[in-house]
């Protein structure tokens, strides 16, 4: 039997650096809000439309990004690499890359960044992942509130869930969760889900910083 006294516990915890509980179970992603300049310097936000043959979310609007690989030095490098691969540009064409608040959900951690795309006319979308790209003036997001709709999530225990071990059994009062799904519509394009959430948060930071 392992025995510990208070001194052992103090020694073990003294140099420990906290992280997210169960972090090894999360998938981690880096994404980039690409900013391009048009019309004599006006900032635009570039969006991708996912290729229709993609297994996950075909046809959805998104930002460049993907899962952090072992080749990535950190989340920022992942976002730059994915942007380079998806837009067909050199990594050096992605500059002034800055992080903002990251998102932790039930299954993933998403690290968003904003960065400038130099010479956007050289973009050649990778057709294996990207159907097309389009640009939206930043002013649209600064001036437009997204539509908001509630989505509720109800816990659904498995058939063999041990109800006999919890107070209330099958009548246990589960907490129902809900969240706002945001929608932006621009020139026939629908921006929603995580992409809209990141964009909305980014615009909020620009307004308050």
Question: Could you describe the 3D structure shown?
Answer:
- Its EC number is 3.6.1.55.
- Its cofactor is Mn(2+); Mg(2+).
- By secondary structure, the protein is an alpha+beta fold.
- 21% of the residues lie in helices and 35% in strands.
- It is built from 4 helices and 11 strands.
- Strands 1, 2, 3, 4, 5, 6, 7 and 8 form an 8-stranded mixed beta sheet that branches. Strands 9-10-11 form a 3-stranded antiparallel beta sheet.
- A hairpin with a 2-residue loop joins β10 and β11.
- It is globular, with a radius of gyration of 22 Å.
- The chain starts with 5 loop residues before the first helix and ends with a helix.
- The model has no long low-confidence stretch (mean pLDDT 94).
Helical proportion?
Answer: 10-25%
What characterizes the major β-sheet?
8 strands, mixed
Low-pLDDT ranges: none
Mean pLDDT: 94
Structural class, judged by helices and strands?
Answer: alpha+beta
Report the sheet-strand fraction.
25-35%
- Total DSSP helices: 4
Roughly how many Å is the radius of gyration?
22 Å
Order of secondary-structure elements: HEEEEHEEEEHEEEH
> Roughly how many Å apart are the termini?
55 Å
Shape: globular
The count of β-strands is 11
Can you summarize this structure?
This protein is of the alpha+beta class and 209 residues long. The protein has helices at 6-14, 75-87, 138-143, 193-208; strands at residues 27-38, 42-50, 61-62, 65-67, 94-99, 103-104, 108-117, 130-137, 147-153, 177-186, 189-192. The radius of gyration is 22 Å and the shape is globular.
């Amino acid at each position: 039997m392992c025995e510990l006294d208070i001194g052992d516990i103090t020694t073990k915890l003294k140099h420990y650096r906290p992280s997210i509980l169960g972090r090894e179970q999360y998938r981690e992603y880096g994404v980039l809000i690409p900013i391009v300049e048009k019309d004599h310097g006006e900032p635009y936000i570039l969006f991708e439309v996912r290729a229709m043959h993609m297994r996950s979310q075909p046809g959805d609007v998104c930002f460049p990004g993907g899962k952090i690989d072992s080749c990535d030095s950190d989340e920022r490098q992942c976002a730059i690499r994915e942007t380079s691969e998806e837009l067909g540009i050199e990594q050096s064409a992605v500059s002034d890359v800055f992080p903002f608040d990251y998102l932790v959900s039930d299954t993933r951690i998403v690290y968003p960044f904003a960065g400038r795309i130099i010479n956007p006319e050289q973009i050649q979308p990778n057709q294996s992942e990207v159907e097309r790209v389009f640009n939206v003036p930043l002013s649209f997001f600064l001036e437009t509130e997204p539509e908001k709709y509630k989505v509720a999530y109800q816990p659904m225990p498995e058939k063999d869930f041990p109800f006999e071990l919890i107070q209330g059994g099958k009548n246990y009062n589960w907490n129902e969760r809900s969240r706002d799904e945001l929608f932006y519509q621009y020139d026939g394009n629908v921006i929603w889900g995580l992409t809209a959430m990141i964009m909305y948060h980014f615009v909020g930071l620009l307004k308050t910083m």
